[in-house]
From TrEMBL:
<comment type="similarity">
    <text>Belongs to the AHA1 family.</text>
</comment>
<protein>
    <submittedName>
        <fullName>SRPBCC domain-containing protein</fullName>
    </submittedName>
</protein>
<dbReference type="InterPro" id="IPR013538">
    <property type="entry name" value="ASHA1/2-like_C"/>
</dbReference>
<feature type="domain" description="Activator of Hsp90 ATPase homologue 1/2-like C-terminal">
    <location>
        <begin position="15"/>
        <end position="137"/>
    </location>
</feature>
<dbReference type="InterPro" id="IPR023393">
    <property type="entry name" value="START-like_dom_sf"/>
</dbReference>
<dbReference type="Pfam" id="PF08327">
    <property type="entry name" value="AHSA1"/>
</dbReference>
Length: 164
């Protein structure tokens, strides 16, 4: 039996699929203000970094309005793992469906599996950004992205991981 990739989901009432799609295309508003490059169209490449702990480069491979966004991890470096190939080649998908006045977003990092050294830290961080920061952006207009290399992840999450 193969390991399962990390996935999490949210449902937001009163928000259209297009609004969720547009928010996903702006990771500076919900993931990190430390994003360089465009993330809003197929073929665009962008970088992310968090302190000296994590750097990654992504390419947008799908952008179907109101339905799906996908990123391919081109390069990645975690300061705290031995296997520097973790994440490289992973696909991150945001699948969006609207029904009865609510929109569901299913986030999956295909290839992020429990055997990865980074799994616990990545699980906690993605869970925060997808289930707290992104919905806050959608419902209040203000997400909780990392800013100026300062984490927005709750202190208890950072402390539990010892790495964020």
């Amino acid at each position: 039996m193969s390991e399962q990739s990390f996935t999490t989901a949210i449902t937001v009432d009163g928000v259209s699929a297009r609004q969720v799609y547009d928010a996903v295309l702006d990771p500076r508003a919900w993931w990190s203000e430390e994003i360089d490059g465009p993330a809003d169209r197929v073929g665009a490449e962008f970088g992310y970094h968090y302190l000296d702990t994590h750097r990654t480069r992504m390419r947008v491979t799908e952008a179907v309005p109101g339905r799906r966004v996908a990123w391919l991890v081109l390069d990645n470096d975690f300061a705290f793992v031995e296997d520097k190939t973790e994440w490289i080649g992973n696909t991150i998908t945001f699948d969006i469906t609207e029904k009865d006045g609510a929109t569901e977003l299913v986030f999956t990092q295909h290839g992020l599996v429990p055997s990865y050294d980074c799994y616990d830290a990545c699980h906690s961080a993605w869970t925060f950004f997808v289930t707290e920061s992104l919905p806050a952006l959608l419902t209040t207009g203000e997400g909780r992205p990392n800013s100026d290399a300062k984490p927005r992840v709750p202190a208890e999450v950072a402390a539990a991981n010892g790495r964020l």
